[in-house]
Amino acid sequence: MTTDYKSTVFLPKTDFPMRAGLPKREPEILAWWKEIDLDRRIREVRKGAEPFILHDGPPYANGHLHMGHALNKILKDLVNRTQHMAGKRTHYVPGWDCHGLPIEWKIEEDYRSKGKDKDAVPVVEFRRQCREFADQWIDTQREEFKRLGVTGDWDHYYTTMTFKAEAQIAREIGKFLMDGSLYKGARPVMWSVVEKTALADAEIEYHDHTSTTIHVRFPVIKPGNPALDGAAIVIWTTTPWTMPGNRAVAYGDDIDYVVVEPTEVAENSLAVVGEKLVVARTLLDDFKAQTKVTALKEVASLKGADIAGTVCAHPLRGQGYDYDVPALAADFATDDAGTGFVHIAPGHGADDFVLGKANDLEVPQTVGDDGVFYDHVPIFAGMHVLEDNMKIAAIIRDHGGLVARGKVKHSYPHSWRSKAPLIFRNTSQWFISMETTGLRDKALKAIDETRFVPAAGQNRLRGMIETRPDWCISRQRAWGVPIPVFTSKETGEPLRDQAVIDRVAEAFEKEGADAWFSSDPSRFLGPDHDPKDYEQVSDIADVWFDSGSTHAFVLESEDEAWADLPWPAQLYLEGSDQHRGWFHSSLLVGCGTRGRAPYEAVLTHGFINAEDGRKMSKSLGNGVDPLEVIEQSGADILRIWVVSSDFTEDLRVGPGILKHAVDHYRRLRNTLRYVLGALDGYSASEALPAERMPELERWVLHRISEIDAVVRQCTHDFDYHTMFLTLHQFCASDLSAFYFDIRKDSLYCDAPQSDRRRAVRTVMNTLFECLTTWLAPICCFTAEEAWRARNTGEFDSVHLQAYPTIPAEWCDEALAEKWAKIRAVRRVVTGALELERAEKRIGSSLQAAPTVYMSAAEKAAFEGLDAAEIFITSGATLSEGTGPDAAYRLSDVAGVACDPTPAAGDKCERCWRVLPEVAVGDPICDRCEDAVSGLVDAAE
C-alpha cells in the first residue's frame, strides 16, 4: 500500500486570505472600530504617558476630498499612529476652517444664478446660509477622512465657526488692540475688484496674463544735472491704469543712464526726432526696438546719483495733474527691464508706498472697490482699471505723453477663488504692527527655536518674516468674525477698553459673531461710552487670523473633551505653501499674544503632480480621485502610495504609480499571510530561548533589532518613506527571498518538537508581533485584519499595542557580518542553479548538489552549518580555491565560483530532496522517517 506522505507535511494554514478585497473589508473594520470606540481606547491606553499632540491645520469646509487632502490626512495619521506605537499619548482633534471668501463666493454665485442681490439680503440671513453650507461639507468630509483610516476624535472636532471659537478669535484680536499693535492705516494691499475685498498672500496665485505696456515721457522741469535740461525721463509700466496715481519717478544710484536724441524714426513711431529722452544704457537697444527709433545720437551720459534733485512734470500736466513729480533714488530700480526708471504710484505698490512715505509724497485715493476710478479723478473718472487700459494709453498718447505702447505676457497675481486678476489698491485697513511690540523679533526668535522637517523650511519662513510688512487683517466681506473694534468719531482712534472686548466675547460665546450685526452698539460699549461718539467697525477678520488662532480655542480649551491637550502643540503638519499661510499666521498670533510659537516642530509635505510630472488639471484629464482609488483598490493602497514617495518633495500619482503601490502591498500582505500560516496551532509552550536557536534564527533576531532601531528613529524623524522602504525590503529580501525560502523545508518537514522547527516558529511569532505593529501605522486596515486573525478578544486591536521591546542581546554585529558573507556566496549558487533550470538540466534546486569554490574566509563562515540547507539543494561541497574556468561567477562577488553538480540518489517522496539514503524500497529519507514515526507515535 502506498503511504500518503502529503498528509504528514506541515503546510501553512490560515484563514487570512491571499486576496485582500480591501474595498469590502475596510468598511467592515471601520464599523468594528466604531463599535469598540477605538479612538477613545487609543487615548485611554496611554493615559498618563508623555503627550505628543499634532494640532490639525484646518482644511476648508468646501468640496469633496481630493488627493491633497488624502496626502495630508494620511501623513497626520502616520504621525499619530507611530507616536502612539512609540508609547506617547496622542489625541488628534480634527478641525475645519469655515469662514471667508470661498464659502461666501459660493453663496453669492447661487444668488447671481437666481437674479438676487446679495446686498439686499440681511447680513445675518446671509451668514446663516454660509454656516449651513459649511456644516454640510464638514459632515461630508468627515466621513471621507474616516474612510482613509484616519483615527481621531471625530465626535469632538473643532471649527472656526462655533460660538466659542468666534468668541476666542475676538479675544485674540482684542489682545493686539490692547497692546497697541492693532491700528487703522491706509496703504496699498492686494485687492480683488471682483470680490471687492483685500486678499492675503495665501489667497493669491499666479497665472500668465497679457498686459498693455506703455513707455511714457516725464518732462524735466527742474534738472538736477545740466545734461537733463530740456529732456524727458522715460518710464515703462505694465499697468497704465496706475498713471493717475503717479507722484514720482525712481532711479538707481549706480545705474548708467544716457540722454539720447532720436535722429530717425519708423512710421507710426510716437518718438519725435530731435527730442531728448533719458533711459538706462544697458536697455537702449530694447528701447529703440520698442519705440521704433531707427537711429539716435547720444547727447550725454550720467550716473543715477547725478539725477538727484531733478523734478519732472506729470505727462498729463494741464489736465488736472499739475503737481511736481520728483525723481527719487530707490534700491528697487534696476536696469534689467524697461527703461531703468520706475514710475511711483504710492497708492498702488508696496515699494512705491514705502518710498512715498519716506519722501512725504501724497498717497492719492483714485480707485474704488469695484476697480472703477472715482468721480474726482481727472479724465479717467468712471473707467475700469483692468478693462480700459488701452483707452488710458490712448488718452496719454493724445496728450503727448506716450512714447510707445505694446503688450507683454507675464506672471500676474490672481484671486485663488475667482481667478480674476488683482490690483494693488490703497485702502483704509486694519493692521497688526510688526514693530510696535517687537512682533517681528519675537517671531524670528521663535523660528530659531522650532524644529523644521525638512530643515529648509526654517529659512523659508524666516525670510518671509524678515521682510513682511505689517499684517493686514481686515476684509470687506460678511462671512467671518468681525473685527470687534469701535473708533472715535472725533479722533478716528480705536477704543482700547478691555471691558468692551470682554462684553463682545461674552455675546459671541452665547450667540455667535452674528451678535455684532444684530445688537445695538450700546450692548458692547456699556455705560462708560456713548454710542453717538463711536463708529462700529464693519470689516471682518482675515481668515488666516481665524486659523492662526485655533491653538487658542483648541489647545487651551476648557472643554472636558480636550482637557488633555497641552499648549504648545508638539507638531504642525501641512503642505509647504503654509509657510506663508497657517504656519505663518499661527506664528504671529502665538508670538503676539503669548511670546512664542504655538508649535515645537513644523513638518511640510510637497504638492501632488500627475504621473508625467505635469500639474493636475481638468483640461488635461490627468487628475486622480482618491475616493475612486479607495472604491477600486482600498485606502491601504493610498496609504502605501504616500509612504512609497518622498513626501517632503512634490509627489506624483497616476495609474502606473498606484499599480506599484498595489505590488508593494501584495508583498507585505503575502509576508503576513505566510507568517500566519506558519504559526498555525502555535502556543507559548513551543517557544525556544534565543540561546538555543540555530544561527540563522539568531541572525533574523539581529535583523529584527536593526529594523526596530530604524522604525523608532524614523518615528522620531517623521521619515515614513525610509521606514516603509526598510520594512518592504526586509519582507521582500531578508524574509521571503531568504529566510522563508530556506526554512520552509524545516517548517514543513521537521518533527514538530525538533529544536530547529520550534526555533522557526518562535521567530515567526516574534515576526508577527513586530510586523503587525510596525506596519499598523501604514496599512492600518491590513495590519488590523492580520492581528485579529490570531487575537480575537472583544477589544483586541493592533492599534492599542506598542512597538515590541527588543532585547539588546539580539543585536549581534559579528553574526551579521558572517551571514553577509554567506548570503553573498548563496547568490552565486542561486544564479548558477537558475541557469541550470533555464537550460532544463534540472527542474528544481533540490536536484543539485553543487561544488562551491571560495576563499578560506568565506569557507570558515559556513563552519558548523549545513550549506545544502542554505542553498536549498540536496547536497553541497565547499572547496577552497578559484574553481574551474567553466564555473559560474558573479562580477560583484569576487572569489566565489559554483559548479552545479547534479545530486546523487533518489527523491524523497516527503521532502523532495535527492539523497543516496533514499532507496526504491524506502521512499523517504531518514529525517522524514523520524518525523513520520513521531507522528504515528503521537497519534497512538
Automatic annotation (TrEMBL):
Would you tell me the Gene Ontology cellular component terms? cytosol
The lineage is: Bacteria, Pseudomonadati, Pseudomonadota, Alphaproteobacteria, Rhodospirillales
Q: What is its EC number?
A: 6.1.1.5
Report domain Zinc finger FPG/IleRS-type positions: 905-930
Q: What InterPro entries would the database entry show? A: aa-tRNA-synth_I_CS (IPR001412), aa-tRNA-synth_Ia (IPR002300), Anticodon_Ile_BEm (IPR033708), Ile-tRNA-ligase (IPR002301), Ile-tRNA-ligase_type1 (IPR023585), Ile-tRNA_ligase (IPR050081), M/V/L/I-tRNA-synth_anticd-bd (IPR013155), Rossmann-like_a/b/a_fold (IPR014729)
Catalytic activity as recorded in UniProt: tRNA(Ile) + L-isoleucine + ATP = L-isoleucyl-tRNA(Ile) + AMP + diphosphate
Q: What is this protein called?
A: Isoleucine--tRNA ligase
The segment(s) forming the Aminoacyl-tRNA synthetase class Ia domain are 29-653
Q: Where in the cell is it found?
A: Cytoplasm
Does the record's keyword annotation contain Signal? no
Q: Which residues bind ATP?
A: K618
| GO MF annotation list | aminoacyl-tRNA deacylase activity; ATP binding; isoleucine-tRNA ligase activity; tRNA binding; zinc ion binding
The keyword Nucleotide-binding is annotated on this UniProt entry: yes
Motif 'HIGH' region extends across: 59-69
Alphabetically ordered keywords of this record: Aminoacyl-tRNA synthetase, ATP-binding, Cytoplasm, Ligase, Metal-binding, Nucleotide-binding, Protein biosynthesis, Zinc
Please tell me the species this chain comes from.
Thalassobaculum litoreum DSM 18839
- GO annotation, biological process: isoleucyl-tRNA aminoacylation
